[in-house]
Amino acid sequence: MKNLDLTTGSIPKRLTQLTLPMMLGIISMVAFNLIDTYFVGQLGKRELAALSFTFPVIMVIFSVVQGLGIGATALISQSIGKGKIDKARRETTDSLLLGVMIAGVFILLGLATMEPIFRLIGVSEDLMPLVTSYMTIWYLAVFFVTIPFIGNSAIRAVGDARTPSFIMLFAVLINAILDPILIFGWGPIPSMGLRGAAIATAISRSLTMVLSLYILYYRERLVTLSIPTLDILRGCWKAILGIALPSSASRLVVPVATGIITAFLAQYGDHAVAAFGVGSRLEFLAMSVLFALAASIGPFAGQNLGKNNILRIRQCLNISARFSIIYGLALWLILALVARPIAEVFSEDPKVVEVVVWFLYILPASFGMQGVTSAVNSSLNTIGRPMPAFWIILIQMIAAAVPLVYFGSLLFDELGIFGGLTIAYLIGGVLSLVLHHRYLRQLEQPTPA
What we know:
Low-confidence stretches: none
Mean pLDDT: 85
Helix content: over 70%
Number of helices: 15
Distance between the termini: 37 Å
Radius of gyration: 21 Å
Strand content: under 5%
């Protein structure tokens, strides 16, 4: 195992070493969705709306998977920081086993509750066959999503952010090749429409699972074939879930709120839902640098906590917050200038284009504070304080966003929904800063003898 020591050296340099490859990885994930959105958009407005309706449900699953990844990163990076390699190997293996179990539960529950769930978020009977044809395949591919995500989290914990990014980039390339072939047909392969997009996803994700497991076992030596005692397995799972459950809960709040917002938008027609789906994917792409920076804080904080370098974690958070605000303001200006040309790439429908343009005029005002929230939450989760991170997101997305979106829709229709969501993100960012400074003061206090 060749790990990057994050407990020494320049903090900006270490963050850059982690963030740049992680940014590639996050851009790859967003590009994965954007490629699907682009090709599905060629099928028509109905298919694009159907794909957009799947977004909140897929976000729920990713929220849980991300929580498991954060729990794994926290434990493994701390063990690496302490020099306990055997313990890190056990934690990696047990994290993967836990991921297999949880993926199985998602598959069974997802297939059994598909139509009731999508009716709840506003899918019409006309669109339901399209949604179910896509999600049936997607649910069956949950194993291929979960295992490489946890595996990549373990690789990042040792300070290697490049390999997981290249694995995700590989998935994007495979998906980009398969999407047009399976969606529109090619040679002997028939046109499968929206279902073809799901099959392309399943194939590309399965290949990344193989790559991730190969690297973990043969290169990093982070997978052990030894059978643990029940007490060791239970202890490892308890430690992972102690971080993963609150972290997943905080991430689950976002898709739940997104589902509510999607339902609000559905009353204005399929074009509004389609535009929100396009805008949300563009938002993730534009925020990739800030999300990558937040993801970098996980292994950084974990390794430094392992060596009790609390001051170094504090300095890391301050640098990240300043960068997020400056970068977010720059993004807002750029996207406002190019909103319409970008919107026209993803749809020829003038109604969809107009709503996407307004989305890009309004939402980016909150990008900087979204970055602050992500950075603070990443640190809190990794150092074993997930509950404050959960409360920040709960207040932001439920206590603030839902009522603001509701009243915004009454006053300004779709634009009011976007405005309400923007204000909620700003509230979450301010709350994160307040908690951030309060928590740093607690860290600076000497521990009683």
